[in-house]
């Protein structure tokens, strides 16, 4: 490993050693080689291009998808003493001229740019006259047509290989299955031998998935264990996003909305408040999130089924980027499956694309309905693996299973006898023998399946039907009426009558413990990472950090991450040299903030 790289790691970033494959990647790129890097969020992906860019002669060019992400990273780098800037269309003419002068005179270490800006007339030509240390394409999954965040402008980045043939190229992502990885390598002209796959596991994240019962009550119970912490709540529609944010505010939470239908200025203001706050909840559609650099997001909740396993992994991965304990919760019901299926069938995509999307939905439903370790199912989708994790709801409270063969036969028969056109609630009522005008009107109180399911209650029948839909034994009407019909696999099941084990949904009160995604012992995720003896000092350090951040109008985490504050609270340094040994304290930050934080520690010791 280059001594120069280790020196940069220590003096700029405040760390003594690289993690995982970082050292190999950094050394590989410093030597002038291309690299594809797949590393889980929070794994230190940014250092893999920032350190080679600082170690090699010239300026590093970083292609990034969002202005907010670029601004965040530039602010953090400047705090560490790195000469970084972002080139974008929002810059006033005066600032743009000054930036180009810095670029052309060697006054920058790192330049961030969005693909649309980079490909605009004249930008590449001007950059070609500048010595580049490397070119890094961040969020590289955006260039894959199979990726969930596909952006057409990313497809045009292959021009970089032609314009800068001798400059090392890097493509980095935290989310890419095998087809997406192959497409990135091919499109960017990066050899398979230059690929570094660091795995997908995020062991600090606790995964939990539950049937929608009373979604607001379930969310409220989940949030009860995250008081004073930041998080994201994802909703499928703009209307639900707005309504959920209003409801959370009425419950006393500092909740903001974010979706594509909002005014640009309002969206930007809300994102800024979220990034600068320490107990803000962002309620959002998927319009919010890609590239969120906030490390102290302690929870992510989905009130609706995400679009795919890649989307679920990416969205839940916004929690716990700092490596501290974080929680996720996903709620879903059969309506979510029907809606996601309808999106696929009604799209203008070619049949091959629809087939791929159906397979992706099946994989997501497999995760939702598994009785085994959720982390194992999630990682296996990406070609990774782990032992049962002990940190997901199904590991912590294994679901009860029952022989659902007869129940499935009854449900399928009832769907058939009622004409394969009624929704879940109606089918359940017929199975339970409910006498009402609608059932009498259609004469379904006279059919053989009326009342044959009284051994189960309505809640279990809903769970059974939901699992039959997930197993593709039952189809849902994609025209939007929600009618159930028997799929081809369901007809095979009725003919062959194989054994079928199904999950018993936990009773509502059972979700109040670990299965709800929280910690049964109480206390926030952040508190659980801080020893009790250090908590008072940790809170004092957080207050000082917020005070400094507000004066500078920057997010608190660009001063120091929570992890660094936890280390400071534990080590309690009494001098500059002692503080320099704390991970995350580089020279520039030591010079700038050392006296203020040492003063807080000394005050606490009195």
UniProtKB/TrEMBL annotation:
One of its GO terms (biological process) is DNA repair. Its cofactor is Zn(2+); Mg(2+). PROSITE patterns: HELICASE_ATP_BIND_1 (PS51192), HELICASE_CTER (PS51194), HRDC (PS50967). Residues 500-529 are annotated as: Disordered. Keywords: ATP-binding, DNA damage, DNA recombination, DNA repair, DNA-binding, Helicase, Hydrolase, Isomerase, Metal-binding, Nucleotide-binding, Zinc. It catalyses: Couples ATP hydrolysis with the unwinding of duplex DNA by translocating in the 3'-5' direction. This is DNA helicase RecQ. It comes from Jiella pacifica.
């Amino acid at each position: 490993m280059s001594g120069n790289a280790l020196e940069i790691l220590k003096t700029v970033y405040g760390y003594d050693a690289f993690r995982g494959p970082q050292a190999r990647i950094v050394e590989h790129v410093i030597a002038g080689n291309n690299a594809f890097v797949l590393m889980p969020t929070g794994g230190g992906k940014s250092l893999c291009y920032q350190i080679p860019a600082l170690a090699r002669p010239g300026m590093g060019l970083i292609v990034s998808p969002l202005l907010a992400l670029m601004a965040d990273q530039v602010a953090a780098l400047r705090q560490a003493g790195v000469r970084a800037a972002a080139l974008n269309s929002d810059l006033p003419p005066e600032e743009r001229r000054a930036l180009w002068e810095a670029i052309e005179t060697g006054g920058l270490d790192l330049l961030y740019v969005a693909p649309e800006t980079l490909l605009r007339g004249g930008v590449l030509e001007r950059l070609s006259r500048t010595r580049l240390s490397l070119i890094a394409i961040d969020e590289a999954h955006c260039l894959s047509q199979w990726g969930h965040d596909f952006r057409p402008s990313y497809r045009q980045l292959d021009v970089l290989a032609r314009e800068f043939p001798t400059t090392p190229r890097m493509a980095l992502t935290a989310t890419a299955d095998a087809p997406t990885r192959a497409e990135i390598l091919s499109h960017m002209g990066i050899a398979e031998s230059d690929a570094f796959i660091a795995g997908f596991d995020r062991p600090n994240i606790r995964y939990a998935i539950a049937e929608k019962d009373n979604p607001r009550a379930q969310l409220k119970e989940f949030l009860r264990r995250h008081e004073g912490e930041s998080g994201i709540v994802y909703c499928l529609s703009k209307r639900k996003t707005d309504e959920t944010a209003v409801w959370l505010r009425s419950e006393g939470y500092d909740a903001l909305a974010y979706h594509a239908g909002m005014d640009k200025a309002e969206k930007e203001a809300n994102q800024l408040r979220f990034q600068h706050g320490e107990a803000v909840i962002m309620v959002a559609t998927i319009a919010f999130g890609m590239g969120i650099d906030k490390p102290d997001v302690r929870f992510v909740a989905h009130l609706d089924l995400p679009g795919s396993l890649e989307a679920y992994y990416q969205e839940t991965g916004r929690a716990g980027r700092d490596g501290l304990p974080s929680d996720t919760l996903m709620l879903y019901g059969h309506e979510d499956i029907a809606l996601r299926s309808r999106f696929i069938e009604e799209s203008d995509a070619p049949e091959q694309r629809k087939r791929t999307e159906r397979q992706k939905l099946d994989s997501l439903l497999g995760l939702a309905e598994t009785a085994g370790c959720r982390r194992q199912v999630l990682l296996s989708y990406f070609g990774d693996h782990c032992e049962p994790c002990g940190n997901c709801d199904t590991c912590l409270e294994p679901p009860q299973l029952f022989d659902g063969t007869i129940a499935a036969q009854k449900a399928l028969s009832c769907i058939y006898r009622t004409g394969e056109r009624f929704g879940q609630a109606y089918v359940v009522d017929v199975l339970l023998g409910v006498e009402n005008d609608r059932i009498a009107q259609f004469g379904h109180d006279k059919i053989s399946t009326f009342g044959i399911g009284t051994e189960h209650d309505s809640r279990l029948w809903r769970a059974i039907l939901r699992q039959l839909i997930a197993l593709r034994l039952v189809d849902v009407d994609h025209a939007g009426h929600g009618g159930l019909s028997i799929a081809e696999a369901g007809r095979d099941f009725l003919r062959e009558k194989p054994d079928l084990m199904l999950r018993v949904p936990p009773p509502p009160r059972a979700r109040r413990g670990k299965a709800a995604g929280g910690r049964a012992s109480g206390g926030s995720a952040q508190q659980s990472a801080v020893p009790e003896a250090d908590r008072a000092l940790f809170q004092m350090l957080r207050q000082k950090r917020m005070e400094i951040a507000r004066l500078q109008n920057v997010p608190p985490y660009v001063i120091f991450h929570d992890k660094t504050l936890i280390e400071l609270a534990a080590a309690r340094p009494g001098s500059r040299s002692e503080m320099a040994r704390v991970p995350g304290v580089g020279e520039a930050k030591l010079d700038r903030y050392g006296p203020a934080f040492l003063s807080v520690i000394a005050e606490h010791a009195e």
